[in-house]
Amino acid sequence: MPAVYCFWEIPSPLTTSHQLAPLRGTHLLLDILLIREGVPLIAIVGKDYGSGSSRDWAAKGPFLLGIRAVIAESFERIHRSNLVGMGIIPLQFLEGDNAESLGITGKETYSVQLPETLSPGDMATVTMDNGKSFQVKIRFDTEVDLTYFKHGGILNYMIRKML
């Protein structure tokens, strides 16, 4: 999954390794251009991601903007669940790791290698185009999380179940 987006630092002009750089404007403009190109995005965020947000829209918004995975230092419990419900993969840095300690700038392109058979608590490897890689915990905490993910989110799961 290539990614060109980093939320833990929002400079202007936008931080991106995309050919549109250095694009001056809003993140929304870049999102629209990347969505048109079908580029899946990864949000790299800090601690307690999702706390204080309007819960379900805090997951719907990123999904609609093309974000397909979030790598966080930690998640607010309900927000993690809402991300899964939208089909977004919640990934968590290992203890002691964060974007800064790993030298992540947001200009990298990322590849996330998920295990072929997923189980709650599995690990994944994230490889950056600069040759560096690191481990993250896949925050599918229950079998229900995995079921929703395999269907692309809770809505797709419910529609398939009804048909």
Automatic annotation (TrEMBL):
Record-annotated Aconitase A/isopropylmalate dehydratase small subunit swivel domain positions: 37-95
Superkingdom per UniProt: Eukaryota
One Pfam family matching this protein: Aconitase_C
Protein name stated in the entry: Cytoplasmic aconitate hydratase
Organism: Papilio machaon (Old World swallowtail butterfly)
